[in-house]
Amino acid sequence: MAESNSASTIPKKCGPYISSVTSHGMNLVIRGIVLFFIGVFLALVLNLLQIQRNVTLFPPDVITSIFSSAWWVPPCCGTASAVIGLLYPCMDRHLGEPHKFKREWSSVMRCVAVFVGINHASAKVDFANNIQLSLTLAALSIGLWWTFDRSRSGFGLGIGIAFLATLVSQFLVYNGVYQYTSPDFLYVRSWLPCIFFAGGITVGNIGRQLAMYECKVIAEKSHQD
């Protein structure tokens, strides 16, 4: 009788399961916050490059930050970064295609460096015309995907992100929120989708790496339990 009472007091399997679900939700929030601040930082740095070369122009009354960026740009980019970074690993799980190509932080950092270089080229390198610049950036962006991603989901999401972000930019420029010098693709520059595509791939890789780190932590905790 005593043995049955002692056995009944042993925690059931549902305890660790509920704990893992709770920790997953918390880690999801933490990953979103980290991705948000990464997006804010990249927005400040990359937008500064564009403004210094007069590629993008904001009205004087909205120049409020120390980096000469409109106040709404960093939080919008941070939010987009959080959404994209969480969407990539979610899409991988949904498609049943876990991304295992170059899954280490050194590769992610190189991907970030290449993305910054692509943005730097769009602002600093002088080409004979916008067509040459656009084709060069398109090749570099696809090269970034091939070097650091190579997944169908990553390419598809990158195309979707580039399309939606370019559409939003067209809408903002049309309404006078900001403007591009020498627009050649309706109201924006023709190379802008390439930057958005490369940015989506880069943030997606960061989000995947953060998700992989979470999985490792949960696995270690389950082994300890």
TrEMBL record:
Superkingdom: Eukaryota
Localization per record: Endoplasmic reticulum membrane
UniProtKB keywords: Cholesterol metabolism, Endoplasmic reticulum, Lipid metabolism, Lipid-binding, Membrane, Steroid metabolism, Sterol metabolism, Transmembrane, Transmembrane helix
Main location: endoplasmic reticulum
GO cellular component, one term: SREBP-SCAP-Insig complex
Membrane topology designation: Multi-pass membrane protein
Listed transmembrane segments: 28-49, 69-88, 131-148, 155-174, 186-206
Example of a GO MF term: oxysterol binding
Biological function: Mediates feedback control of cholesterol synthesis.
Family, per entry: Belongs to the INSIG family.
Name this polypeptide is given: Insulin-induced gene protein
Organism: Pelodiscus sinensis
